[in-house]
Automatic annotation (TrEMBL):
<protein>
    <submittedName>
        <fullName>Uncharacterized protein</fullName>
    </submittedName>
</protein>
<keyword id="KW-1133">Transmembrane helix</keyword>
<dbReference type="InterPro" id="IPR035275">
    <property type="entry name" value="Smim3"/>
</dbReference>
<feature type="transmembrane region" description="Helical">
    <location>
        <begin position="20"/>
        <end position="46"/>
    </location>
</feature>
<dbReference type="Pfam" id="PF17307">
    <property type="entry name" value="Smim3"/>
</dbReference>
<keyword id="KW-0472">Membrane</keyword>
<keyword id="KW-0812">Transmembrane</keyword>
Length: 60
């Protein structure tokens, strides 16, 4: 067995291409944007469904 090679410690070296790095960053940004926009949008839709609709004739 060569000196310095220990089978218990495996080091995985991955070199990502620039387009892969950009893909991961853009996917992360899209996911975080979706998670930030979703709760307020759901709250607005929920409030619109709970509030009574106001008709143009003045009747509820």
């Amino acid at each position: 067995m060569p000196v310095g090679t220990n089978p218990s410690e495996t080091v995985v070296k991955t070199i990502l291409a620039p387009w892969q790095i950009l893909l991961v960053i853009s996917a992360t940004v899209l996911t975080m944007t979706f998670l930030m926009v979703l709760p307020p949008a759901a709250l607005v839709i929920w409030r619109m469904r709970r509030l009574p609709q106001i008709s143009l004739q003045g009747h509820v």
